[in-house]
Amino acid sequence: xxxxxxxxxxxxxxxxxxxxxxxxxxxxxxxxxxxxxxxxxxxxxxxxxxxxxxxxxxxxxxxxxxxxxxxxxxxxxxxxxxxxxxxxxxxxxxxxxxxxxxxxxxxxxxxxxxxxxxxxxxxxxxxxxxxxxxxxxxxxxxxxxxxxxxxxxxxxxxxxxxxxxxxxxxxxxxxxxxxxxxxxxxxxxxxxxxxxxxxxxxxxxxxxxxxxxxxxxxxxxxxxxxxxxxxxxxxxxxxxxxxxxxxxxxxxxxxxxxxxxxxxxxxxxxxxxxxxxxxxxxxxxxxxxxxxxxxxxxx
Length: 299
Ligand SMILES: Nc1ncnc2c1ncn2[C@@H]1O[C@H](COP(=O)(O)OP(=O)(O)OP(=O)(O)O)[C@@H](O)[C@H]1O
Ligand SMILES: [Mg+2]
Description:
One of its GO terms (cellular component) is plasma membrane. By secondary structure, the chain is an alpha/beta fold. The chain is 34% helix and 21% strand. It contains eleven helices and ten strands. Strand 1 and strand 2 form a beta hairpin.
């Protein structure tokens, strides 16, 4: 199937923004093994009704092997939360699970609610209504996330039309949004390969924020960029969520980035959250050995 044949639009731009190997297919609950699901075993703790996102006892497994185990955390509306941890600790899988975009072959159990609405077990149809509208996501590699055969302006406009904006309005709005992230007017007519890495990441951010999502998830959005461009993109992320009142889940290896962008941080190790707290506290006085080592390694 060529890029042109690929079905477009039904996921609000996020279908193009999948990491390699991921396929949007709704949530797959773990099957087999014990008849008791982890939901039966571990009822979710008290729900705070003002939470935007509540993750409770999230477990992601490959066969019998747990890759993410019993992860629970909350994000309040407008809150900016960092997720740090060594390579392979389960950060991206956690983000993919929230989006309902786990790679093939992996299963999930537990609970993920957005404004109290359960996403685990939700149909692909329900999830695609949320993705790109209530949930926006920016991945590390913009080139794999953008459609190489479609002009940038159209990709941004499509993120709006799939969620109900009329085409003419969406075309105009796409230009406004691209302008807002500092991209020149001609960008709308460009193809992704005609842009720099930093410009492509701005386009992805534009798509992710196009519908003013309640939660923006960024998975290492600046790792592939050089330092000055990184700073510009980070500023745009911070400004984008602030202007819209969106909450942010920001994944990175870079503790300095967490300190500049986030209020609270979660530390992930071997598929578990081992520490969480306000950024200043966790980075200046880490309680867990693992966090201490991460902080020392970053100095
Ligand atoms: N499709 C898959 N099938 C099997 N195992 C996987 C799959 N994707 C990820 N894993 C494993 O799950 C674990 C967590 O992966 P994940 O991508 O979430 O790590 P990460 O914290 O994002 O790492 P990095 O910082 O390198 O991006 C790793 O051990 C990885 O090898
Ligand atoms: Mg990752």
